[in-house]
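User: Protein kinase domain-containing protein. Structure?
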Amino acid sequence: MGLIFLLLHLTLYFDAGVWLIRQASYYFSIPSGIPRSTNLVHLAFVAYGARASGVWLGRFTSWGGRSAVFARLPAGGTASSELDCLGEVKNDQESPSEIPPSLLSSLPRTLLDWRNTDVYPPRKVWDPLQAWFATRGLHLFKADDPNSAFFGAVFPTDPTIRAPDGNYIYTGNPESCLFQFTRCQKPIHCFAQTVDGRYVLIRLIAKGDFGHEELDILQKVAMGPLSFLGENHCLPMAQQLTLQDMTFGVFPAVTEGFGFPWYHAISEVFDATIQLLEALNFLHRHLIAHRDIGADNILINFVGGKRPITPDLPFRSLFPVRYYFIDFELAVRFAETSPVEDRVVTGLPIKRLGSDDPDDYGRDIAPEMLSDAPYNPFQTDVFQMGIMFYNYFRLLKEDAPGLVAIFERMAAAEPNARPTAGEALDMVRACEKTLTRAQLALPVPEASLPDRNYTERLKRKVAKAKAKSEALVAFQNAI
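Assistant: Predicted structure:
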């Protein structure tokens, strides 16, 4: 038996080594327009995963770039073979007897019910599944004492065994690397700790008949061969777990970081915009429209500790920052065989969640999204990203006017006046080359972000509630 395991480990290391050689050859043949740092950090994370992939029973190895679970696959594997390699993870359909029916029946009935549950803190929704996840090497973070000042926060079950995960940690106190608390902002999310001490996020992706569009997209770009590409900035999904009609995805626990800490130099702005346009171009080339682009759906390879709050600390220059897209629950994917004219949608993306109210969408809305006519979702993606870039970096109009002009073109009211994601990416790269090293080192003035007309939205909500109440009274009087 020992000899068999030795041969297995040698095979895994050989496969990982072959994969690294391929990635290295890719890195050293990068076209001049692509920032090498982006691909080099991706290669470094894969190397870390290859080193750790010898832990055969530990499915979680390296985060940061892509899950090293796939570095253990035979060369030339397909997306199907990679999912098959996960064995019981792919076909993890558990019998009802594994969890008492009374506990299963206490869970929200649908995906929408789970999203909109009024249980607080949201972590409590996951209590019936705690033992089930533990048998799969995932220990759910515990909820804090409801009487404490941090009500709603969650904590690792054993913060003293936190393991390095390839992500950057900034801290002035080494002990704070061992402890982290965070808030579960959505009931469909739950933080957990793996058996080897890594922090992950579990997300309920699909339940019943809902959520399978997102699952299909994640299986396409967050798992399998495409997940290894440097231009792919989708947060990798390391595991897919199934319990009855529920499908869960396991992701690295990383952090929002598009707008905080603020940018130290203009070069950091170019790095962020190039990476995110690269990400959007990758999705669009694979006929995926995100339809929910905002700063809160962009994460960076940072976790734990405390980020610097002193303005003169160049946080984004301390390590090779990699930006990730998350949250594909409103996304749409078109078949490669579909006619171009059929790659359209209608209405607001929020319709998928049972609402047609613009106030519930919470995103910048392109003019065509409010009409009843079909529109191109790839163009609205460009619009949303352009508005986001402009809102954050519009004060660069004096030091980098060409860059701001690109953002304005992306946010044009006329859809056909907007560049594609690929065209915008080429424009930004060309613009960066026109600036000197001294210009790229200039500070970035921080703009105040628009409040999305919160007061007006509140007035509309109050008016709708009043109208609904009056209609109910009128109906009752009519009876």
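Residues 455-479 form one domain. Confidence is low (pLDDT under 50) at residues 18-91, 93-97, 174-180.
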